Each structure stands twice: as C-alpha cells, then as structure tokens.
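Friendly challenge for the regulars: who can give me the structure tokens for this chain first? No prize, just bragging rights.
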Amino acid sequence: MKRHFSSFRFSLLASLFLLAAAMTSCSESDDTVEEYVNWEARNYEYFENIYQQAKTAIDGGDLSWVIIKSYSKPDGLTAYTAGADIDDLHTNYIVAHVITTGEGTESPLQTDSVRVHYRGWLLPSTSYPEGKQFDSSWQGNYDLTTMVPAKFSVTGNINGFATALMSMHVGDRWEVYIPWQLGYGTSSSSSSIPNCSTLRFDITLHSFSKPGKAMPPFK
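First reply, four minutes later:
Bragging rights claimed.
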C-alpha cells in the first residue's frame, strides 16, 4: 500500500507540474497574442487617423505635413495639395511630418544610391507604449556629428520607404508613416515586424549618387 500510494502521489505531482507548465506556456502565448491583438484593424485605424490629421493640417495651410502617392502607382510621387480631391485609396499614400528642411534641391531617383540616417518603430502596443523599435542606423541620441549613415540603393527598400526617399532633398529629416500595403504587407518575412504593420520611420537624407558615380563622403 505504501508503495502504491507513493506512486500515486508521484503521478499526481507530475500531473500538477505539467499542468502548471502548460498554464505558464499559455500565459506567455497569451502575452504574445495580446501584444498584437486586433493588429490589422488597429494598424488600419492608426494610419487612417494620421492621414486625416495630415490632410486637415495641409488644408489649413500647415506646410510641415505632406501626403505623397506611392511611386509605383499611376501619378506616383505626387503630393496632396490643400482642397484637392483624392479618389483612390488612402493606403496608396505615405504621410510625413517634416522635422527639418534641408538645403538640397534635388531628390534621388529609383536607380540612385543613398546615405540615410533612419530609425523604425511599430505602432504603440501593450509592452511598447511608444512603439517597438525594430531597426536603426544609429545608437543613442540623434546627433549628426557622431552618427554614421547607412548606404543602400533606393530600390532595395520597401515601397513606402523608397517613396519617401524619392520625395526628400538632402538635409531633410522626416517622420514618415507607411501603411502596411506599402510596407511588408500581410505576409511579412521579418521576424521583428508582424503582418499588417503600419511603420513609423525617422529618416534623414544625408546624400545620394547616380549609378556609376562615387557616393559623396559622409563627413
């Protein structure tokens, strides 16, 4: 009897341990799900709110906001002007808030290479009230005297990022909002960016060069 009871008690304890482990696993899983609950709807609403905020500002004469059509769409790279009619999807556009206006007068083309300072976030979520940062070309504070820009081709980027680059001038610093339709879409290949993610970028265009031409030095 003692051996039988001991065996039963062991089995009971083992079962309780497994149950506790399962509950812990579910809890962690729930946290992960909770982080991005209703993600598609939240991201759509987030971008729509930013779009409407920018449109209202532009209609009121605020030049610090721009709405730009994706370069890949008909009439691409055209900017919204106050009072204009927009008869296509808002998600065919990026929205940008101009932080600094540079002294450059030209913009990169699709075939050009660029030097860029950038940092990217997801929209605010449970664990990241300011939005989860998923990529950055610099560490610490924004300081042009110490930061080293990333170098890449315009076409090597997602649609919305490339659209921003092809609309900026050297020295411009923009906060750019990209709907998932111009980002990583509904089947993101990035482990740090969920499907249907609206993206927010801090982008500074440092310099650019034409194909076959040397890139200007970053300092």
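The longest helix spans residues 2-35. Confidence is low (pLDDT under 50) at residues 1-33. Your move, everyone else.
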